[in-house]
């Protein structure tokens, strides 16, 4: 059986049997993979405590075509990202990114997608708790773009007219993004948005770390993102990590 050693990030993990774990990994060379880590629950394991959520390292995999669950023989952790787990804002944002990967990525090689995930998690790891939502939003939109369904933000998705500054716009997920007010009238489900929202999403997609000014605006952005992502899901199942991220006001005292 071929052995593949590839950089990977732990997206999801659960116990399997008395001694093992099953993980979902984003890998640099083999897309997203489900793997069985035999013995990973034992104290004296070769995996050690390396398999925490969002940990990054080199995974040694036995890959067999046509199989849903592959085997991981070992994982050399290079970056544990433990500080994400120490703050709920960072953790819930990173979990939403992981959910995006789990629901949309495939086992196709996609290095750009993998690197976008790594950079997003790196940014969340060092974000101040009050900025973690904005940082997570930026990372999520960049993943959406790498997954191939970024919204058009500077022209109407239907009539393709360029937007003028201050123009009233509607964000309509099932139409693929932002529409002019005239085209948007045909969609009851759309939301009126100020053009500053488009500008912020555009800036995030271009790699800028534009902060969101307050929790209300952050939540409005999260709702737009969730509705947009949900409209691209074939199975209609809810996005649970997105909902937890959106509804928790972890900074409320
Ligand atoms: Zn239009």
List descriptors:
OB fold (Dihydrolipoamide Acetyltransferase, E2P); 253 residues; 23% strand; 35% helix; alpha+beta; five-stranded mixed barrel; binds zinc ion; three-stranded antiparallel beta sheet
Please describe what this structure looks like.
This protein has 253 residues and is an alpha+beta fold. The protein contains seven helices and eight strands, in the order E-E-E-E-E-H-H-H-E-E-H-E-H-H-H. It folds into two domains: 3-80, Nucleic acid-binding proteins (OB fold (Dihydrolipoamide Acetyltransferase, E2P), Beta Barrel), CATH 2.40.50.140; 85-151 and 188-247, Up-down Bundle (de novo design (two linked rop proteins)). Helix content is 35%, strand content 23%. The chain has a five-stranded mixed β-barrel. A three-stranded antiparallel β-sheet has the order 7-6-8. Zinc ion (ZN) binds next to strand 7 and helix 4.
